[in-house]
Specification:
Layout lengths: L14 H15 L6 E2 L11 H14 L15 H12 L11 E4 L2 H7 L9 E6 L3 H9 L3 E6 L17 E5 L11 H14 L2 E5 L21 H4 E6 L1 H4 L7 E4 L7 H11 L5 H9 L3 H27 L4 E3 L5 E5 L6 H12 L1 E2 L1 E2 L10 E5 L4 H14 L1
Parallel strand pairs: 1-11, 3-4, 3-5, 5-6, 6-7
Antiparallel strand pairs: 2-8, 7-8, 9-10, 10-13, 12-13
Helix pairs in contact: 2-10, 3-10, 4-5, 11-13
The structure holds pyridoxal-5'-phosphate.
Length: 387
Protein backbone atom coordinates (compact mmCIF):
# COMPACT_ATOMS: atom_id res chain seq x y z
CA UNK A 1 0.00 0.00 0.00
CA UNK A 2 1.17 3.51 -0.77
CA UNK A 3 -0.65 6.35 0.91
CA UNK A 4 -1.74 9.51 -0.85
CA UNK A 5 1.40 11.63 -0.55
CA UNK A 6 -0.52 14.75 -1.42
CA UNK A 7 -1.81 14.70 2.17
CA UNK A 8 1.70 15.74 3.21
CA UNK A 9 1.01 19.11 1.62
CA UNK A 10 -1.67 19.83 4.23
CA UNK A 11 -0.87 22.00 7.19
CA UNK A 12 -0.55 19.93 10.34
CA UNK A 13 -3.07 21.67 12.49
CA UNK A 14 -6.56 22.27 11.38
CA UNK A 15 -7.17 25.90 12.36
CA UNK A 16 -9.95 25.36 14.85
CA UNK A 17 -8.14 22.50 16.61
CA UNK A 18 -5.22 24.84 17.30
CA UNK A 19 -7.56 27.63 18.47
CA UNK A 20 -9.34 25.21 20.81
CA UNK A 21 -6.06 23.80 22.06
CA UNK A 22 -4.84 27.27 23.05
CA UNK A 23 -8.15 28.13 24.72
CA UNK A 24 -8.24 24.86 26.65
CA UNK A 25 -4.63 25.22 27.75
CA UNK A 26 -5.39 28.73 29.03
CA UNK A 27 -8.48 27.46 30.85
CA UNK A 28 -6.51 24.68 32.58
CA UNK A 29 -3.91 27.22 33.74
CA UNK A 30 -6.65 29.68 34.83
CA UNK A 31 -9.61 27.59 35.99
CA UNK A 32 -11.48 30.64 37.31
CA UNK A 33 -11.31 32.57 34.05
CA UNK A 34 -14.53 33.16 32.13
CA UNK A 35 -13.37 32.93 28.54
CA UNK A 36 -15.63 34.64 26.02
CA UNK A 37 -15.60 32.50 22.87
CA UNK A 38 -16.15 34.73 19.89
CA UNK A 39 -14.21 32.64 17.44
CA UNK A 40 -15.81 29.52 16.09
CA UNK A 41 -18.49 29.80 13.41
CA UNK A 42 -20.97 27.34 14.86
CA UNK A 43 -24.56 28.37 15.57
CA UNK A 44 -25.73 28.62 19.17
CA UNK A 45 -29.51 29.22 19.09
CA UNK A 46 -31.73 26.13 19.41
CA UNK A 47 -33.52 24.78 16.36
CA UNK A 48 -36.85 26.54 15.74
CA UNK A 49 -39.99 24.71 16.93
CA UNK A 50 -41.50 24.07 13.44
CA UNK A 51 -38.29 22.26 12.46
CA UNK A 52 -38.22 20.19 15.64
CA UNK A 53 -41.91 19.31 15.06
CA UNK A 54 -41.13 18.14 11.51
CA UNK A 55 -38.32 15.93 12.81
CA UNK A 56 -40.53 14.44 15.55
CA UNK A 57 -43.15 13.65 12.93
CA UNK A 58 -40.55 12.06 10.65
CA UNK A 59 -39.20 9.90 13.47
CA UNK A 60 -42.74 8.75 14.28
CA UNK A 61 -43.39 7.87 10.63
CA UNK A 62 -40.33 5.65 10.56
CA UNK A 63 -41.79 3.64 13.45
CA UNK A 64 -44.88 2.46 11.53
CA UNK A 65 -45.01 -0.03 8.69
CA UNK A 66 -47.35 2.12 6.56
CA UNK A 67 -45.15 5.23 6.74
CA UNK A 68 -41.73 3.62 7.07
CA UNK A 69 -39.06 4.76 4.57
CA UNK A 70 -35.83 3.12 3.56
CA UNK A 71 -33.22 4.65 1.25
CA UNK A 72 -34.23 7.87 -0.43
CA UNK A 73 -33.14 8.75 -3.95
CA UNK A 74 -29.45 9.65 -3.77
CA UNK A 75 -30.31 13.15 -5.01
CA UNK A 76 -32.93 13.68 -2.29
CA UNK A 77 -36.71 13.47 -2.13
CA UNK A 78 -38.59 15.22 -4.91
CA UNK A 79 -40.68 17.19 -2.42
CA UNK A 80 -37.54 18.76 -0.95
CA UNK A 81 -35.89 19.45 -4.29
CA UNK A 82 -39.11 21.05 -5.53
CA UNK A 83 -39.31 23.20 -2.37
CA UNK A 84 -35.70 24.31 -2.98
CA UNK A 85 -36.46 25.31 -6.57
CA UNK A 86 -39.70 27.09 -5.66
CA UNK A 87 -38.37 28.99 -2.65
CA UNK A 88 -34.68 29.60 -3.22
CA UNK A 89 -34.60 30.01 -7.00
CA UNK A 90 -37.94 30.61 -8.74
CA UNK A 91 -38.58 33.57 -6.41
CA UNK A 92 -35.41 35.13 -7.87
CA UNK A 93 -36.37 34.43 -11.48
CA UNK A 94 -34.11 31.38 -11.79
CA UNK A 95 -35.42 28.26 -13.54
CA UNK A 96 -33.90 24.93 -12.55
CA UNK A 97 -34.85 21.35 -13.34
CA UNK A 98 -35.38 18.88 -10.52
CA UNK A 99 -32.45 16.76 -11.67
CA UNK A 100 -30.09 19.72 -11.27
CA UNK A 101 -30.69 19.79 -7.49
CA UNK A 102 -28.76 17.38 -5.27
CA UNK A 103 -29.61 17.23 -1.57
CA UNK A 104 -26.65 16.45 0.65
CA UNK A 105 -25.58 16.10 4.25
CA UNK A 106 -24.12 19.61 4.18
CA UNK A 107 -21.96 21.93 2.16
CA UNK A 108 -18.73 20.66 3.71
CA UNK A 109 -19.00 17.22 2.10
CA UNK A 110 -19.98 18.51 -1.32
CA UNK A 111 -17.26 21.16 -1.40
CA UNK A 112 -14.72 18.42 -0.83
CA UNK A 113 -16.32 15.77 -3.04
CA UNK A 114 -16.86 18.00 -6.08
CA UNK A 115 -13.11 17.98 -6.51
CA UNK A 116 -13.43 14.39 -7.79
CA UNK A 117 -15.11 15.59 -10.99
CA UNK A 118 -11.96 17.24 -12.28
CA UNK A 119 -8.68 16.12 -13.72
CA UNK A 120 -5.73 16.32 -11.36
CA UNK A 121 -3.90 18.74 -13.64
CA UNK A 122 -6.60 21.40 -13.53
CA UNK A 123 -5.33 24.63 -12.06
CA UNK A 124 -7.25 25.97 -9.10
CA UNK A 125 -7.71 29.61 -8.07
CA UNK A 126 -8.73 30.39 -4.52
CA UNK A 127 -9.13 33.81 -2.91
CA UNK A 128 -6.82 34.29 0.06
CA UNK A 129 -7.97 34.33 2.86
CA UNK A 130 -10.61 31.64 2.48
CA UNK A 131 -12.56 28.89 4.21
CA UNK A 132 -9.85 26.19 4.56
CA UNK A 133 -11.79 23.34 2.89
CA UNK A 134 -11.18 24.60 -0.69
CA UNK A 135 -7.42 24.60 -0.22
CA UNK A 136 -7.33 21.27 1.60
CA UNK A 137 -9.55 19.48 -0.94
CA UNK A 138 -7.40 20.82 -3.80
CA UNK A 139 -4.16 19.80 -2.10
CA UNK A 140 -5.50 16.31 -1.35
CA UNK A 141 -6.23 15.97 -5.07
CA UNK A 142 -2.69 17.08 -5.94
CA UNK A 143 -3.70 20.25 -7.74
CA UNK A 144 -1.77 23.43 -8.30
CA UNK A 145 -3.30 26.38 -6.47
CA UNK A 146 -3.04 30.04 -7.40
CA UNK A 147 -3.97 32.22 -4.45
CA UNK A 148 -5.79 35.44 -5.19
CA UNK A 149 -4.75 37.88 -2.47
CA UNK A 150 -7.42 39.94 -0.77
CA UNK A 151 -6.52 42.93 1.35
CA UNK A 152 -7.90 46.28 2.39
CA UNK A 153 -6.36 47.63 -0.85
CA UNK A 154 -8.87 45.70 -2.97
CA UNK A 155 -11.62 45.81 -0.30
CA UNK A 156 -11.19 42.05 0.03
CA UNK A 157 -12.49 41.48 -3.48
CA UNK A 158 -9.92 39.40 -5.38
CA UNK A 159 -8.69 40.33 -8.83
CA UNK A 160 -9.31 37.91 -11.68
CA UNK A 161 -6.51 35.32 -11.94
CA UNK A 162 -3.52 36.49 -13.99
CA UNK A 163 -2.76 32.84 -14.87
CA UNK A 164 -5.53 30.80 -16.50
CA UNK A 165 -7.56 28.97 -13.82
CA UNK A 166 -9.70 25.90 -14.52
CA UNK A 167 -11.47 25.67 -11.17
CA UNK A 168 -12.34 28.76 -9.14
CA UNK A 169 -13.73 28.70 -5.63
CA UNK A 170 -15.79 31.73 -4.64
CA UNK A 171 -17.67 32.18 -1.37
CA UNK A 172 -20.09 35.08 -0.92
CA UNK A 173 -21.03 36.33 1.61
CA UNK A 174 -17.48 35.50 2.48
CA UNK A 175 -16.12 33.49 5.32
CA UNK A 176 -13.89 34.85 6.88
CA UNK A 177 -13.97 38.48 5.66
CA UNK A 178 -17.75 38.96 5.64
CA UNK A 179 -17.51 40.79 2.32
CA UNK A 180 -19.90 40.38 -0.64
CA UNK A 181 -19.78 40.81 -4.41
CA UNK A 182 -22.11 43.13 -6.27
CA UNK A 183 -23.91 41.87 -9.34
CA UNK A 184 -21.39 43.65 -11.55
CA UNK A 185 -18.41 42.12 -9.75
CA UNK A 186 -19.86 38.63 -9.94
CA UNK A 187 -20.64 39.11 -13.64
CA UNK A 188 -16.92 39.69 -14.22
CA UNK A 189 -16.16 36.27 -12.70
CA UNK A 190 -18.80 34.54 -14.77
CA UNK A 191 -17.51 36.23 -17.92
CA UNK A 192 -13.97 35.15 -17.05
CA UNK A 193 -15.09 31.56 -16.53
CA UNK A 194 -16.94 31.51 -19.85
CA UNK A 195 -13.95 32.91 -21.72
CA UNK A 196 -11.50 30.52 -20.05
CA UNK A 197 -13.66 27.39 -19.91
CA UNK A 198 -13.35 27.40 -16.13
CA UNK A 199 -15.82 26.18 -13.57
CA UNK A 200 -16.80 28.28 -10.55
CA UNK A 201 -17.65 26.44 -7.35
CA UNK A 202 -19.80 29.01 -5.63
CA UNK A 203 -20.24 28.56 -1.89
CA UNK A 204 -23.43 30.29 -0.79
CA UNK A 205 -23.50 28.98 2.78
CA UNK A 206 -24.21 32.48 4.14
CA UNK A 207 -26.77 33.59 1.57
CA UNK A 208 -29.42 34.14 4.26
CA UNK A 209 -27.32 36.95 5.75
CA UNK A 210 -27.48 39.20 2.70
CA UNK A 211 -29.01 42.49 3.76
CA UNK A 212 -28.21 45.03 1.06
CA UNK A 213 -29.88 45.41 -2.33
CA UNK A 214 -27.93 44.65 -5.50
CA UNK A 215 -26.12 41.77 -3.84
CA UNK A 216 -26.93 38.59 -5.76
CA UNK A 217 -28.24 35.76 -3.57
CA UNK A 218 -27.41 33.12 -6.14
CA UNK A 219 -24.75 33.06 -8.86
CA UNK A 220 -27.51 32.02 -11.27
CA UNK A 221 -28.88 35.56 -11.09
CA UNK A 222 -25.90 36.39 -13.30
CA UNK A 223 -26.12 36.02 -17.09
CA UNK A 224 -24.37 32.91 -18.35
CA UNK A 225 -23.70 31.45 -14.90
CA UNK A 226 -25.54 28.20 -15.57
CA UNK A 227 -22.84 27.28 -18.10
CA UNK A 228 -19.96 27.70 -15.67
CA UNK A 229 -21.11 27.52 -12.04
CA UNK A 230 -21.95 24.93 -9.44
CA UNK A 231 -23.64 26.40 -6.38
CA UNK A 232 -23.35 24.85 -2.92
CA UNK A 233 -25.79 25.76 -0.16
CA UNK A 234 -26.33 24.70 3.42
CA UNK A 235 -29.06 24.80 6.04
CA UNK A 236 -26.38 25.02 8.74
CA UNK A 237 -26.23 28.79 9.11
CA UNK A 238 -29.63 29.49 7.58
CA UNK A 239 -31.64 27.35 9.96
CA UNK A 240 -29.21 26.04 12.59
CA UNK A 241 -28.57 22.61 11.02
CA UNK A 242 -24.90 22.20 11.96
CA UNK A 243 -25.78 19.01 13.86
CA UNK A 244 -28.81 17.94 11.78
CA UNK A 245 -26.69 17.97 8.57
CA UNK A 246 -28.42 19.00 5.38
CA UNK A 247 -27.50 21.12 2.39
CA UNK A 248 -27.72 20.95 -1.37
CA UNK A 249 -25.73 21.51 -4.51
CA UNK A 250 -26.95 22.76 -7.87
CA UNK A 251 -25.20 21.27 -10.87
CA UNK A 252 -26.78 22.74 -14.02
CA UNK A 253 -26.83 20.50 -17.07
CA UNK A 254 -25.17 23.26 -19.07
CA UNK A 255 -21.96 22.76 -17.09
CA UNK A 256 -21.66 19.30 -18.65
CA UNK A 257 -21.06 17.91 -15.16
CA UNK A 258 -24.59 17.00 -14.01
CA UNK A 259 -24.49 13.35 -15.14
CA UNK A 260 -21.03 12.88 -13.66
CA UNK A 261 -22.13 14.28 -10.30
CA UNK A 262 -25.24 12.08 -10.35
CA UNK A 263 -23.06 9.06 -11.09
CA UNK A 264 -20.65 9.99 -8.33
CA UNK A 265 -23.42 10.47 -5.77
CA UNK A 266 -25.17 7.22 -6.74
CA UNK A 267 -21.92 5.32 -6.19
CA UNK A 268 -20.58 7.01 -3.11
CA UNK A 269 -23.53 8.60 -1.31
CA UNK A 270 -26.64 6.78 -0.20
CA UNK A 271 -28.77 9.80 0.42
CA UNK A 272 -29.50 12.27 3.19
CA UNK A 273 -31.44 11.07 6.21
CA UNK A 274 -35.22 11.23 5.87
CA UNK A 275 -35.44 13.11 9.16
CA UNK A 276 -32.96 15.77 8.00
CA UNK A 277 -34.79 16.18 4.69
CA UNK A 278 -38.14 16.65 6.44
CA UNK A 279 -36.43 19.19 8.71
CA UNK A 280 -35.09 21.03 5.66
CA UNK A 281 -38.54 20.98 4.05
CA UNK A 282 -39.96 22.58 7.21
CA UNK A 283 -37.69 25.62 6.71
CA UNK A 284 -39.87 26.51 3.70
CA UNK A 285 -43.25 26.50 5.48
CA UNK A 286 -44.48 29.97 6.54
CA UNK A 287 -43.84 29.17 10.22
CA UNK A 288 -40.49 27.53 9.52
CA UNK A 289 -39.33 30.43 7.38
CA UNK A 290 -40.37 32.98 9.97
CA UNK A 291 -38.63 31.14 12.79
CA UNK A 292 -35.40 30.53 10.84
CA UNK A 293 -35.34 34.16 9.71
CA UNK A 294 -35.77 35.28 13.33
CA UNK A 295 -32.62 33.36 14.28
CA UNK A 296 -30.69 34.83 11.37
CA UNK A 297 -31.93 38.29 12.37
CA UNK A 298 -30.68 37.71 15.92
CA UNK A 299 -27.19 36.80 14.66
CA UNK A 300 -27.21 39.82 12.35
CA UNK A 301 -27.95 42.10 15.28
CA UNK A 302 -25.06 40.53 17.18
CA UNK A 303 -22.85 41.15 14.13
CA UNK A 304 -23.89 44.80 14.16
CA UNK A 305 -23.11 45.08 17.86
CA UNK A 306 -19.62 43.65 17.34
CA UNK A 307 -18.99 45.74 14.24
CA UNK A 308 -20.07 49.01 15.87
CA UNK A 309 -18.29 48.22 19.12
CA UNK A 310 -14.96 47.44 17.46
CA UNK A 311 -15.25 50.39 15.08
CA UNK A 312 -15.85 52.73 18.02
CA UNK A 313 -12.63 51.43 19.57
CA UNK A 314 -10.73 52.45 16.44
CA UNK A 315 -10.40 49.10 14.73
CA UNK A 316 -10.67 48.83 10.97
CA UNK A 317 -13.55 46.40 10.48
CA UNK A 318 -14.97 44.64 7.43
CA UNK A 319 -18.01 42.42 7.06
CA UNK A 320 -20.75 42.09 9.64
CA UNK A 321 -23.39 43.71 7.40
CA UNK A 322 -24.24 40.89 4.96
CA UNK A 323 -22.48 38.18 6.93
CA UNK A 324 -22.16 36.85 10.48
CA UNK A 325 -18.41 37.49 10.48
CA UNK A 326 -16.44 40.57 11.43
CA UNK A 327 -12.96 40.84 10.00
CA UNK A 328 -10.83 43.17 12.08
CA UNK A 329 -7.27 44.46 11.79
CA UNK A 330 -4.72 43.73 14.52
CA UNK A 331 -3.21 46.78 16.24
CA UNK A 332 0.45 47.85 16.25
CA UNK A 333 1.59 45.44 13.56
CA UNK A 334 0.86 42.43 15.75
CA UNK A 335 0.59 39.15 13.90
CA UNK A 336 -2.83 37.57 14.00
CA UNK A 337 -1.72 34.75 16.34
CA UNK A 338 0.02 37.33 18.58
CA UNK A 339 -3.18 39.34 18.81
CA UNK A 340 -5.17 36.15 19.40
CA UNK A 341 -2.89 35.28 22.34
CA UNK A 342 -2.94 38.87 23.57
CA UNK A 343 -6.75 39.00 23.69
CA UNK A 344 -6.93 35.57 25.31
CA UNK A 345 -4.33 36.38 27.96
CA UNK A 346 -5.25 39.99 28.68
CA UNK A 347 -9.03 39.89 28.59
CA UNK A 348 -10.03 36.26 28.07
CA UNK A 349 -11.61 36.94 24.69
CA UNK A 350 -11.17 34.23 22.06
CA UNK A 351 -11.30 35.06 18.36
CA UNK A 352 -9.96 33.32 15.24
CA UNK A 353 -6.56 34.41 13.88
CA UNK A 354 -6.82 35.56 10.28
CA UNK A 355 -3.58 33.81 9.29
CA UNK A 356 -5.40 30.50 9.78
CA UNK A 357 -7.43 31.34 6.66
CA UNK A 358 -4.38 31.95 4.49
CA UNK A 359 -1.31 34.16 4.20
CA UNK A 360 -3.31 37.26 3.32
CA UNK A 361 -5.27 36.83 6.54
CA UNK A 362 -2.14 37.86 8.45
CA UNK A 363 -2.74 41.08 10.38
CA UNK A 364 -6.45 40.31 10.88
CA UNK A 365 -8.69 38.38 13.23
CA UNK A 366 -12.23 37.11 12.78
CA UNK A 367 -15.06 37.49 15.25
CA UNK A 368 -18.17 35.38 14.87
CA UNK A 369 -21.67 36.74 15.49
CA UNK A 370 -22.90 33.25 16.30
CA UNK A 371 -21.47 33.86 19.74
CA UNK A 372 -23.59 34.51 22.80
CA UNK A 373 -24.92 38.10 22.70
CA UNK A 374 -24.05 38.90 26.32
CA UNK A 375 -20.54 37.55 25.76
CA UNK A 376 -20.15 39.88 22.78
CA UNK A 377 -21.23 42.89 24.84
CA UNK A 378 -18.87 41.88 27.61
CA UNK A 379 -16.04 41.29 25.12
CA UNK A 380 -16.32 44.82 23.75
CA UNK A 381 -16.16 46.18 27.32
CA UNK A 382 -13.09 44.09 28.09
CA UNK A 383 -11.31 45.07 24.87
CA UNK A 384 -12.11 48.72 25.62
CA UNK A 385 -10.37 48.44 28.97
CA UNK A 386 -7.19 47.31 27.22
CA UNK A 387 -6.94 50.53 25.25
N1 LIG B 1 -18.89 26.79 3.56
C1 LIG B 1 -18.53 27.76 4.40
C2 LIG B 1 -18.03 29.03 3.86
C3 LIG B 1 -18.60 27.56 5.79
O1 LIG B 1 -18.23 28.54 6.60
C4 LIG B 1 -19.06 26.32 6.27
C5 LIG B 1 -19.14 26.05 7.71
O2 LIG B 1 -18.72 26.77 8.56
C6 LIG B 1 -19.41 25.34 5.36
C7 LIG B 1 -19.33 25.61 4.01
C8 LIG B 1 -19.87 23.98 5.80
O3 LIG B 1 -21.23 23.95 6.00
P1 LIG B 1 -21.98 22.59 6.39
O4 LIG B 1 -22.30 22.67 7.85
O5 LIG B 1 -23.22 22.59 5.55
O6 LIG B 1 -21.08 21.45 6.07
Amino acid sequence: MRSNLFFQQLQNNYLFSEVNHRIETYQIMHPQAHILRLGVGDVTLPLPAPIIDAMHKAVEELGHAESFRGYSQEEGYIWLRQAIIDNDYRTRGIQLDLDEVFVSDGAGSDLGNLSELFDQHNRVAIPDPSYPAYVDASLMAGRDITFLPCSSDNAFVPDLPAKQADIIYLCYPNNPTGTVLTREQLQRWVDYARQNHSIIIYDGAYEAYIEEDDIPHSIYEIDGAKEVAIEVRSYSKTAGFTSVRCGYTIVPKQTGLQTMWLRRQCTKYNGTSYIAQRAAEATYTPQGKKAAQANVHYYKQTAQLLRNGLQALGYQVYGGINAPYIWCNTPQNMSSWEFFDYLLNQCQVACTPGAGFGQSGEGFIRFSAFSNRKDCEEAIKRIKKLA
